[in-house]
Each structure stands twice: as structure tokens, then as C-alpha cells.
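Whiteboard transcription, Tuesday session. T.W. wrote the C-alpha cells on the left side:
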């Protein structure tokens, strides 16, 4: 456990904020996972509850009690029964519960277009403990040695970072060694208040994507407070991020520290209408001359609005605002939406000038948990549109270099993984009966990418000060890149306690730009503990 002491300057005073960040033994309460078949299954069981807040994930420990569990497979053998239905190790008494389960991943992939066979392997442990229903601790730890297809290996080779995870440990040809340590310690202060300390990921939204905060990037250390009162659920979170310096004395890829502070309010206005409000600010602890100044103390205030603080302090920090509306049309049919605002001047929208600073994104979607009243049939249709330069920012000073206070972490987007200046449509159909699952997904997207070293607004890691112009900025400007992703898979849930699945399927991925035309048709088979987001349905 490491204790980070931040010296914070605000309104002429110095404050000490002691932020406990777990880096050696990391913990994360992702008991209802963020992206997999069983998450949809458990979400379905609470989707008709008007008091439940579906847009805040991972859920609190008490939320887990509301979700259904799969029935046991009846077998005569005690050994087989234990392997199919029970935790690997469990213990409980009046005040204490302990569970330990394996993390296993052994899969083989074959890429038809590249005529290459590659494999992935993970081994680790998941631990859960409960003490007097007040203190909850969960942890996921694994180590992996994996081969990657070319579209993934290029990223790892150039940056030394594994998508969705973090730093590459070592590499032998196309074989990559990396690890993951995540987890959370949760304290239930009362019926309505929780406090969380951990290292992991969070997801805010009802869609497959989130324009607010997703689980796309590497895990991060955070502190979080949750209040759930009446029809309101409120989140305050501060997280430590790391990113690549743009310029440093040695001209190397150096990671520097920055932080994100988040407020999120979810309000169930009626049994069918949910409204939510999001705001965040990205900051680092240096002033505009590169001297250590500390984070603004007001950012640690759990109720104050960040944008007025950032404006009045005259900082170079990056603020985002968002609103969402969710409608429950019928018992299992939901309409959802998000609007993310980076900057906006209303007068410049209608004047036709194409001002670059009108930066925003829109999401609209529909999902049905029992399509056509067919139990177990899930459907989602979703559209995402993000204007150029959204989520990006200008230069900021760090200790010995220049960085970018964009909305990212470990050179990965914190919100939508495609970045900005894109249009995306996706559809998903999932069906489960008992422990059998099938999944079909289609994603079609267009993106305006950079040409001739000009920043057209798609890469959030390029400074918006390198933009092509102040006016005449158009949606999907630059060279048009087209993307198609299709997947079909069938799986059987071997053990629901640790979400071990046997899976087989096929993926098709096609990226076409002015310079390249890459296709990958990949077949896969194997067993996997499905608790991590390893989606590559984006570009």
C-alpha cells in the first residue's frame, strides 16, 4: 500500500489531502462485470426496478443482492458439483465471509487473412471478503502471456502499453507478458452512504459505449463516495491517471501524473424517467511555468461545480459537462441518451462559421432485455456522434516537460475508444437459456483522420492548438476512414461463481483508410474467466 500526500493550494492556504492509493495489493468491486454476457443477465433482473440506477457501474455490494443468480446444475458427483456450482474456496461464520476463485484464460485464435495462429493465456485469483456487512474487499490479480494480431501488436510495439491494461513487462517476438492488479475496499457507513478506495475502472451510462466514463483504458487508483437517498444516487470520485508527455528533455515516452475529479448525479424522476448529470475536470499539479502548485482544493469538494472553479482560478485544466436521459417505455424496453459538452457557444452554432470550439458528442440508443417478450433475448441499437477536437486539450506543464490534459489515461481514451470526429452505429443481439449464451454484434463507423501532419480533431492525444483552422471546421473532416466489425460467438457458462466460460466464435474486422485496407477474419476457441473488457470493436 502506498500513501500519496498531495500538497494542495487553494485560496491562499495550504492543505494536505492524504489519498490512499493501493498499488501493491489492488482491489476492485466489479462483482457485476462491466462488459460480458452475465452482466446483461444480472442487469435484466433489476431492469424493471424503478428504484435501481442502471447507469452507475460497478454496483455497490447491496445492489448485488437484488440480482438473480443462475440455477445449479444437478449432478450426483460432489466433485463435479463443486466445480460447476460452487466457489473454489469459501468460508463463512456469523460476521465474516471469504471466497477465492481462479482466473483462467486459455484460448486459441486463427487469423485467416494473416494465416497466423496465436494464443492467449491468463492465470490469477479473485478474492472476496465481507465483514459484518459493513466492510467489503474484492481483488482480481492475474498475469498473462499472450500473442496479438497485427492491429494490436502495432500499438503495443510503438508505446509499450497493452490496450485495456497497462505497461508491457516483456516481449519475445509477438508474445507479450503483462499483468493486472485491481480491486476495491468498500465501507458501508450507513444505509445510504458508501466509501470506496481502490484501483480499477468505472462506467457511467446505459450504453455499450459511454461518452462520460467507460472501462476502455487501463485501471487507475481512486477514492469514491456514493450516496443513495430516495430516488437519487450521487457519486464523487477522484482518480490518479498516467499519460505520455508530449515533450521532455530526453525525447522519450515518459509517463506523468494527472488526476480526474468527477461528480455524477442520477435521479429517478418517476418510475419511467431517469435524468443524470455528469461533470469532470482533468488537472495536474503544476502551474503554467512548470512549478509544483498542487491541485485546486475546491476540486475535492464533493458538491461544488467544477467549471466555475476552473474558470475563476484561471487554470489550464480541462472540464467536461454531460447530461443523460433514460426512459423505461415498458417493463424491459429502455431508451437511453447522453450529451457530452466540452465547449459550446450557441451563437456560433447557427451562424454557419464552423467554429472549432463547439465540441460535443451525442449518444442515442434503445435496448430490450426480453425482445418480443421472449425470455432471454436481448437487443441493443446505438448511435454515437462526436465532433472534432472533443476530449482533447492544449499543452500543460509538468516537471521537466510538456503534457496534454486530454480526457485519457495510459494513451487510451477514458470515454469512447474511437476518440472524436466520428459517427458510429452498432447493434447487438444476445440470447441465453440457462447457462448457454449466444452473442452477435455489428459495428459500422466513419472517422475523419489526420492527413499531412494536420490535426483534424480525431486523435484526442494531439493538442487542439495544432488544429487546421479556427473556423470552417466540419464534422468528419480530414481523410475518411471506414470501419466494420462483426462478431458471432456461442458459449457455455461452466461456473457462474467465477464466470468461467467455454467459448467459440468468429470476428471480422475491416479498417479502410486512404493509405491502408486491413481485414482480419479471426476464429477463436477456448475457456475464459469473462471478467475483463477486452473488446476491440473500435478503431
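and on the right, the sequence the group agreed on:
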Amino acid at each position: 500500500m502506498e500513501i500519496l500526500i498531495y500538497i494542495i493550494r487553494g485560496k491562499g492556504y495550504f492543505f494536505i489531502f492524504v489519498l490512499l492509493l493501493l498499488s501493491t495489493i489492488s482491489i476492485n468491486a466489479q462483482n457485476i462485470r462491466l462488459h460480458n454476457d452475465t452482466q446483461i443477465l444480472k442487469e435484466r433482473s433489476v431492469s424493471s426496478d424503478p428504484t435501481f440506477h442502471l447507469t452507475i457501474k460497478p454496483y455497490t455490494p447491496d445492489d448485488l443482492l437484488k440480482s438473480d443468480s443462475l440455477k445449479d446444475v444437478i449432478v450426483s458427483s460432489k466433485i463435479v458439483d463443486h466445480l460447476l456450482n460452487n466457489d473454489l474456496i469459501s468460508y463463512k461464520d456469523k460476521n465474516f465471509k471469504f471466497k477465492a476463485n481462479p482466473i483462467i484464460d486459455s484460448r486459441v485464435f486463427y487469423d485467416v487473412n494473416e494465416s497466423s495462429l496465436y494464443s492467449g493465456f491468463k492465470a490469477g485469483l479473485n478474492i472476496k471478503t465481507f465483514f459484518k456487512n459493513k466492510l467489503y474487499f474484492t481483488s482480481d490479480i492475474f498475469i498473462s502471456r499472450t500473442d496479438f494480431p497485427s492491429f494490436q501488436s502495432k500499438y503495443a510495439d510503438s508505446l509499450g502499453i497493452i490496450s485495456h491494461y497497462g505497461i508491457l513487462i516483456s516481449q519475445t517476438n509477438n508474445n507479450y507478458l503483462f499483468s493486472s492488479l485491481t480491486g476495491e475496499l468498500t465501507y458501508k457507513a450507513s444505509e445510504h452512504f458508501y466509501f470506496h478506495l481502490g484501483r480499477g475502472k468505472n462506467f457511467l451510462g446505459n450504453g455499450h459505449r459511454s461518452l462520460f466514463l467507460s472501462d476502455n483504458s487501463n485501471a487507475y487508483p481512486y477514492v469514491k463516495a456514493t450516496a443513495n437517498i430516495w430516488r437519487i444516487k450521487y457519486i464523487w470520485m477522484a482518480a490518479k491517471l498516467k499519460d505520455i508527455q508530449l515533450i521532455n528533455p530526453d525525447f522519450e515516452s515518459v509517463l506523468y501524473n494527472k488526476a480526474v475529479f468527477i461528480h455524477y448525479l442520477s435521479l429517478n424522476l418517476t418510475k419511467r424517467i431517469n435524468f443524470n448529470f455528469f461533470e469532470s475536470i482533468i488537472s495536474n499539479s503544476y502551474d503554467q511555468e512548470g512549478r509544483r502548485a498542487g491541485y485546486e482544493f475546491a476540486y475535492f469538494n464533493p458538491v461544488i461545480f467544477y467549471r466555475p472553479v476552473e474558470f475563476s482560478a484561471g487554470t489550464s485544466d480541462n472540464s467536461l459537462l454531460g447530461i443523460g436521459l433514460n426512459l423505461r417505455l415498458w417493463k424491459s424496453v429502455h431508451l437511453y441518451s447522453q450529451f457530452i459538452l466540452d465547449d459550446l457557444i450557441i451563437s456560433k452554432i447557427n451562424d454557419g462559421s464552423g467554429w472549432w470550439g463547439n465540441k460535443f458528442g451525442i449518444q442515442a440508443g434503445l435496448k430490450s432485455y426480453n425482445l418480443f417478450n421472449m425470455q432471454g433475448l436481448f437487443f441493443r441499437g446505438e448511435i454515437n456522434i462526436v465532433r472534432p477536437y472533443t476530449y482533447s486539450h492544449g499543452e500543460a506543464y509538468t516537471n521537466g516537460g510538456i503534457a496534454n490534459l486530454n480526457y485519457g489515461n495510459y494513451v487510451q481514451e477514458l470515454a469512447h475508444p474511437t476518440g472524436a470526429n466520428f459517427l458510429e452505429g452498432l447493434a447487438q443481439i444476445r440470447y441465453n437459456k440457462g447457462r448457454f449464451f449466444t452473442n452477435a454484434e455489428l459495428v459500422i463507423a466513419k472517422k475523419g483522420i489526420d492527413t499531412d501532419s494536420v490535426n483534424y480533431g480525431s486523435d484526442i492525444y494531439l493538442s487542439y492548438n495544432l488544429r487546421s483552422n479556427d473556423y470552417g471546421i466540419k464534422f468528419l473532416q480530414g481523410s475518411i476512414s471506414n470501419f466494420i466489425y462483426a462478431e458471432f460467438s456461442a458459449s457455455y457458462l461452466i461456473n457462474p461463481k467465477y464466470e468461467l466460460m467455454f467459448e467459440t466464435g468468429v470476428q471480422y474486422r475491416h479498417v479502410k483508410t486512404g493509405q491502408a485496407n486491413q481485414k482480419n477474419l479471426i476464429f477463436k476457441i477456448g475457456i475464459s474467466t469473462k471478467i475483463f473488457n477486452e473488446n476491440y470493436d473500435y478503431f
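Someone added at the bottom: The two ends are 36 Å apart (CA to CA).
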